[in-house]
Amino acid sequence: MRISDKWTDYELIDTSDGERLERWGNVTLIRPDPQIIWKSSAKTSEWNTADARYIRSSSGGGAWDYRKKLPESWQISYGELRFMVKPTGFKHTGLFPEQAVNWDYCADLIRNADRPINVLNLFAYTGGATLACANAGASVCHCDAVKGMVDWARTNAKLSKLDDKPIRWIVDDAVKFIKREIRRGTKYDAVILDPPSYGRGTNGEMWKLEDSIFGLMEDITQLLSENPLFVLLNSYTTGLSASVMSYLLEMTVGRRYKIEVLSEEIGLPVKQTGLPLPCGSTAIVKFI
User: Fold this and answer.
1) Whether 9 contacts 24, CB under 8 Å
2) Whole-number mean pLDDT of the chain?
3) 200 has which bridge partners?
4) Chain-centre distance of CA 208, in angstroms?
5) What sign results for the dihedral spanned by CA atoms 5, 122, 254, 229?
6) Where on the phi/psi map is residue 13: left (φ > 0), alpha (ψ -120 to 50), or beta?
7) Is 284 in contact with 261 (CB distance < 8 Å)?
8) DSSP 146-157
9) What would the mean pLDDT of 76-90 be, rounded to a whole number?
């Protein structure tokens, strides 16, 4: 497992009984996590003093129970990158901290490439990978179907003093955008994909990862340049394990290029136990 262990403004304090206790800057939050199927025998006292807790509803969704008044949003940093975080109605905060290990990996590849790198970031959310690549010197196309997420990413770019970097901000359905880029003959040296398990496009199109990912990766392969640097695919669904993603990439990208695939779980260190919490898997294509 590859661990995101370089955070100072974020900390996973404890995990127990379907919940995680986290520190986001100076704010502590309790959020549900269904894969936490254990109960801690010695829960830290910080559970009792958390600033807010997300409580799921039996009818679906949920709401935040605020134990103290919090600002609508606040900022945290990861190295030179700075992000706005805030509790949303879907338990999220606008950032997946486990992805920092992938941000660092991509940034290192870009810095060591010794050539201009053009990156496509799909399902790009609030821009963590976009900013990491731009900060490393790449040109980036940031694509997400939700305008609010792209606006949030642009805010993060401004906070990180990267708003003057060569970043294209695209609000579009990823599948449709890729088809248009193929017709335009656009090429990318690197592609990052962080697709949801389920979702809807800009016009309500239904997206289901297991049904759509093979065709998507076939199209992505057509967008790669003659000398690509990497392809990175994330998955949070148990139906798309690290081994399945590795096989998928071999059967798509590997049919046109000579590649190696690094495929592993990623996770976060838990302060209370010293154990890593699995937070999904990543498969990275390296071109030989």
Assistant:
1) yes
2) 94
3) 206
4) 17
5) negative
6) alpha
7) yes
8) -HHHHHHHHHHH
9) 96
Q: Residue 197 CA to chain centroid, in angstroms?
A: 13
φ, ψ for residue 107 (rounded to 5)?
-60, -40
Measure CA 179 to chain center.
Answer: 23
Q: How many Å apart are CA 88 and CA 25, to the nearest integer? A: 17
The owner of tokens 């992505």 is: 220
**What is the per-residue pLDDT for 209?**
77
CA dist., res. 268 & res. 126, Å (int): 20
pLDDT tier at 16, thresholds 50, 70, 90: very high
User: What is the distance between the alpha carbons of residues 278 and 246, in angstroms, rounded to a whole number?
Assistant: 18
Give the number of other CB atoms < 10 A from CB of residue 265.
16
Q: What letter would DSSP give residue 275?
A: P
66 Ramachandran zone, left/alpha/beta (phi>0; psi -120 to 50): beta
182 sits in which H/E element: helix 174-184
Write out the two tokens for 148.
């609010």
Tens of pLDDT, residue by residue over 228-247, are 999 999 998 666 889 999 99
170 touches 143 (CB < 8 A): yes
Q: At 210, is the secondary structure helix, strand, or coil?
A: helix
Task: Using a cut of 0.85, tell me whether the model's pTM lies above it.
Answer: yes
Residue of 135, 26, 173, 129 lying closest to 85 (CA atoms) = 26
Instruction: Output the six-digit token pair for 5.
Output: 């262990």
Cβ atoms < 10 Å from Cβ of 43 = 15
Question: What Rg value do the Cα atoms of the chain yield, rounded?
Answer: 19
Please say if the pLDDT value at position 3 is more than 70.
yes
Query: Per residue in 186-213, pLDDT tens?
Result: 999 999 999 887 666 556 666 677 788 9
How many other CB atoms are found less than 10 A from the CB of residue 9? 17
